[in-house]
Design brief:
By secondary structure, the chain is mainly alpha-helical.
Length: 87
């Protein structure tokens, strides 16, 4: 079953990354995948993420940087889309 899901879910991740950031390079897809996983766990099991953050403070900072980067790339993409609509 897992093999049957890999390609369709990879396609979903690729399209999500493209819509979110404007492009879907392998590096961006991996960053979005990590961001989605962390965000989902943080929302569904906050105590687990709190424990993880305390256990891995350096990695927590790396995740914060990743989240900031994705937010910035998304804002840039939205701005470019807004500018395209105006012209």
């Amino acid at each position: 079953m897992q093999n049957e899901l890999n390609a369709p879910l990879d396609g979903l991740l690729e399209k999500y990354t493209e819509l979110l950031l404007g492009e879907a390079t392998p590096e961006l897809k991996e960053k979005v995948k990590l961001w989605v996983l962390y965000s989902h766990i943080a929302k569904s099991m906050p105590p687990l993420v709190k424990h993880w953050n305390e256990t891995y403070p350096e990695e927590k900072d790396m995740v914060k940087e990743l989240i900031s980067e994705i937010k910035q790339l998304n804002e840039q993409h939205r701005m470019s889309q807004t500018n395209k609509k105006r012209t």
